[in-house]
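Technical appendix A lists one of the benchmark inputs used to test multi-chain prediction within the project. The record comprises two sequence entries:
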Amino acid sequence: MEKKIEFMLRAIELSKNGLESGKGGPFGCVIVKDGKIIGEGNNQVTSTNDPTAHAEMVAIRNACKNINSFQLEGCEVYTSCEPCPMCLGAIYWARPDKIYFANNRSDAAEIGFDDAFIYDEIEEKIENRQIQMEPLGRMEALEIFKQWKLKTDKIEY
Amino acid sequence: MEKKIEFMLRAIELSKNGLESGKGGPFGCVIVKDGKIIGEGNNQVTSTNDPTAHAEMVAIRNACKNINSFQLEGCEVYTSCEPCPMCLGAIYWARPDKIYFANNRSDAAEIGFDDAFIYDEIEEKIENRQIQMEPLGRMEALEIFKQWKLKTDKIEY
């Protein structure tokens, strides 16, 4: 069996395990580097009271911990469903080389998940979003950004 | 001092603490419910090797832990910078009532952070994104989604 299909089937297996054990939604993810799985995760939102514990987030955190890095350069993400905006954002911050996904955002909407809605909201202008967003305190906050710019021993990411 | 300014100044203070102690980028966040802070966070990406450890994510996870819930209904998010797509996605999943933000995504780009780039990428069609995305295994994954739909004891979120 082709390696990439094997990795995806593992991600799907994780989604099934999470569903059957009541950990959370039906989502699984594996992170692969140099042909080996270096991180895994399934959705754990409801069992850990953590709305950020999507499969991709859990897998990214697990992989980063295992390789002691906050970057996943040279890695591939295999996820049982197209990443939601939170997870896609996390993937961009981790900077892997490639994403393989199985179900898509419409499939997720079809079984009751907000992925497509959140994509629509993110593309809306700030003033038109359903969660109200109000600017406050920019002058004070800009001072800290200036300090960051001047900091000589910072670790960039 | 008006309460909302007080909460934002605390978020900015957290951003300053994180910067000065070398925990990570210059970002802080507090979550408020019924006029009280129920969760706090500052960016810890580089100090914990966790690319998902943005201030908002840390604060959301902290608040949810403190109130034993995966939802932040009735809460307000005060963040020292406009949330990146990952954090905005997390906020939508947590479903607070309102977001206050200080610096904006252009301010973040100005000091070297990818927020604006990731917003642009999320709005791109999948086939045009800089991280390649390839569909794989949808038929197998759809089976698990069907099981979720039929599951009678699931906790929805």
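The mean pLDDT of chain B is 96. The CA atoms of residues 126 and 133 of chain B lie 6 Å apart. Comparable benchmark entries are summarised in Table A2.
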